[in-house]
Fold this sequence. Notes:
α6 (189-193) links the parallel β8 (181-182) and β9 (200-202). The protein has helices spanning 7-10, 47-64, 109-118, 145-154, 167-174, 189-193, 221-234, 236-245, 258-262, and strands at residues 35-40, 68-74, 80-81, 102-103, 107-108, 131-134, 160-163, 181-182, 200-202, 207-210, 213-216, 269-271. Helix content is 31%, strand content 16%. α3 (109-118) packs parallel to α4. By secondary structure, it is an alpha/beta fold. The protein has one domain: Class I glutamine amidotransferase (GATase) domain (Rossmann fold), CATH 3.40.50. The protein has nine helices and twelve strands.
Amino acid sequence: MSDSIDQQSTTNGTDGATNGTPKQPLFEINGKDPVHYGVLLFPGFQALDVFGPLDVFNSLSMLYNYPIKMTMLAKTSKAVETSHQRAGNQMFSHPETDCSQSMQIDRTFEDQLKIQETGTHGENGKGCIDVLIVPGGVGTRNDMAAEIDFVKRMYPSLKAVLSVCTGATILARAGVLDGRRATTNKRAWDWATGNGPHVNWIGEARWVVDGNITSSSGISAGVDATYAFVSANYGETIAQDLADSAEYVRWTDADHDPFAKRWNVWGKRGSLAR
């Protein structure tokens, strides 16, 4: 089973003067042992929340030959769509669209939990997950009971968690953000922060690091948070080289967030910070 970060020492801690500066790398990279990333998927997930971070890690593995493993996780083994209408969400009134993508699932929640608990390897040779990526999307407003339970049971065995956009609401409802600083989508601020009454929500932040949890603001912010995660755990030179290779201009200041002003969240705090 993966060695987890000392949960008790980080539960109420912060990580320095800025939102995006971790105290130290969350795991040791030696170029030999693979780091196993898992992506939690659900109907109605936001495409860029998933594909943005995935592309960064794909490039990290390809360009630097790191032995990264990646597993797609969901409640069932059925492919998961981005379509929010077919996910049963009525948030938007426009007609159902065929502009939707789906992802194949590698392993169900329950199958992965058995592996985390026993330390065994699955049929595809992938064992315990080290880092869990939790995207957001309109689907987070649906019944998330299975996803919340999965995060709650997985967290003690994880080395790190990266949430994107309203994916933070899943973490909040699972209780793993209690007493921590975190951020989320600014347009959905009131709804999102209402899901975490015991969370210290930071309104003006592109992303926030607290202990072994990184949470990003809305959608595209997940890409910047992922590069920051790579910088902290694999090195800044590598993170910048990956961004340059992607011809992407990184947002490197976690505290600079003009979208907080755009969506009237400027200077706001949520829940514990009020």
